[in-house]
Design brief:
Structural class: alpha+beta
Strand content: 15-25%
Largest sheet: 2 strands, antiparallel
Distance between the termini: 60 Å
Shape: elongated
Order of helices and strands: EEEEHH
Number of helices: 2
Number of strands: 4
Helix content: 10-25%
Strand order of the largest sheet: 1-2
Radius of gyration: 22 Å
Length: 72
């Protein structure tokens, strides 16, 4: 397995870490965190359905009938 390396580059006022060709970046946006010992973690952004009011309305009345049969 080849070792991937990325060198920090200065672009304008930002530092940039290029992604090596063999790493597939599926998301368009990532949250970035710095962990212990200088580790940098990129987490793909995804929608949180619990913060979407339309999702909440759609599933508010959902019930699993098998679970409630005879208990009402």
């Amino acid at each position: 397995m080849a070792e991937n390396r990325a060198k920090v580059r200065l672009v304008g006022d930002s530092k940039v870490l290029p992604i090596p060709k063999n790493i597939v970046a599926d998301a368009e946006e990532y949250s970035v965190y710095q962990g212990r010992d200088g580790i940098i973690v990129f987490v793909p952004e995804s929608l949180n359905p619990f913060r979407d009011p339309d999702w909440d309305k759609k599933f508010t009345e959902c019930k699993q009938e098998e679970a409630f049969r005879g208990l009402t």
